Amino acid sequence: MSEHESILDVRDVSLQFGGVRALSKVTFTVKRGELFAVIGPNGAGKTSMMNCISGRYTPTQGRIFFKGQDVTALPANRRTEVGIGRTFQNLALFGHMSVLDNIMVGRHHLLKNNFLTGALYWLGGAQTEELRHRRDVEEIIDFLEIGAIRKATAGTLSYGLRKRVELARAIALKPDLILLDEPMAGMNQEEKEDMARFIVDLNEEWGMTVIMIEHDMGVVMDISERVMVLDFGQKIAEGLPDEIMSNPYVRKAYLGEDDDGEREVA
């Protein structure tokens, strides 16, 4: 794979907390424009990997390159600025704020309000820029079909709708790479189908590269281009969805099957 084809290169990343090793020499590459899934049992290191990519954690060893730039030591807010957005396994919305205001928070780093230009900016282009940001946010609201709740208080919404609002806020960052940590957790089947459709459209129509952690194997196999499997912090497989599903090591680690393809009895 040539340099220009990849948007993210993770090289021999390990992460340790005291005597606990969450990740062990994990290496993988994500192509620009790809929908890439990360799967594995609970405690496999999936969210730890997301946290390393987004800057919440700094790897104990290894390097992370984004668009050719070494971002290993870059703090989380700077990674947002260079084009990495994310949602969280546990909702991180401002429950007391409206849906619209929560999404506008995602535009914060795009505002031109530094100290040197602030006074002239507020005297000049503030209103024009505010209108532009509002138009962009309304486009996201329309895309995710949440227009009816734009003025609702986020904390009063159903879990499925709050997950959709969190996705909207991540999209508002205008990232080149979006990290989705269990975007369909806790949803019913209809909500999952809607979210899967939004993720595919986000990837195909909006051109965002997607890395997704998801436990629903049906969704993963339906919409992902490639899949990586982690188990006990190590990469045990990577490939096309069909290859992953037929991999005996994956079936043993993820589905609890023995070498003969039979389920292990606890």
From TrEMBL:
Task: Quote the cellular component terms of the Gene Ontology held in the record.
Answer: plasma membrane
| Domain (ABC transporter): residue spans on this chain | 8-257
Look up the EC number in the record and give it: 3.6.3.25
Enumerate the Pfam families for this protein.
ABC_tran, BCA_ABC_TP_C
Keywords of this entry: ATP-binding, Hydrolase, Nucleotide-binding, Transport
PANTHER family, per database record: ABC TRANSPORTER ATP-BINDING PROTEIN, CONSERVED COMPONENT OF ABC TRANSPORTER FOR NATURAL AMINO ACIDS-RELATED
Protein name as it appears in the record: ABC transporter component
Q: Which species is listed as the source?
A: Pararhodospirillum photometricum DSM 122
